[in-house]
Amino acid sequence: MTRYIYGRAMPLHDSYVEASTDITGEQYEVQLIPDRSVIQLDTIIGATVQHDYCEEIGRSDKGTLDIVVNDTGVYFRIHCMTDRARRTHARIRRGELKHCSLSFTYKSRQIIEKEQQAAQLTRALGWEHATVKVNEYTEILIFEICVCDHPANHNTFTTTNGHDPRLAGIDWRMGRG
Q1: pTM over 0.85
Q2: How does pLDDT run along the chain (177 residues), one tens digit per residue?
Q3: Bridge pairing between strands 4-11 and 65-69
Q4: In three state form, how does the secondary structure of the chain look?
């Protein structure tokens, strides 16, 4: 019986927020993910555990990783053909790995009007020393998908249940592997 690992590695129409602090105050960088038109898949995409390339569990060029990009996100299915992939499948079933992440290169553009809106909001909240930088991705080139327990975006998920309602409407025949 073939086992699979499924997930959503990147939700679309969403954002990532990175916070940092220096002597000038709080700084927030917001990256907006507009829609699937900005997503490109690299020639070879690897699937790993915790971004560890020694823990590879699938690859698009080996037929063990399928990727579907639709209007709601970047979804994947890993065919568990190796012992490492089967062990990872068991860890997901036990709830040890609930999320995923990905590695990508990108181009983005700064959105001044959204930064001005954010500045007004932070001042209204009393955050006088907070700055917000807002960028929108214009191109994303994905080269790795990773199952993990500490994602940058908590709207990701992994599952071993192919009938999970979050996968409804995904046509794996349209995936690239």
Answers
A1: yes
A2: 789 999 999 999 988 888 888 777 788 888 888 899 999 999 999 999 999 999 999 999 999 999 999 999 999 999 999 999 999 999 999 999 999 999 999 998 888 888 888 888 888 888 877 888 888 999 999 999 999 998 888 899 999 999 999 999 999 887 766
A3: unpaired
A4: CCCEEEEEEEECCEEEEEEEEECCEEEEEEEEECCHHHEEEEEEEEEEECCEEEEEEEEHHHCCEEEEECCCEEEEEEECCCHHHHHHHHHHHCCCCCEEEEEEEEEEEECHHHHHHHHHHHHHCCCCCCEEEEEEEEEEEEEEEEEECCCCCCCCEEECCCCCHHHCCCCHHHCEC
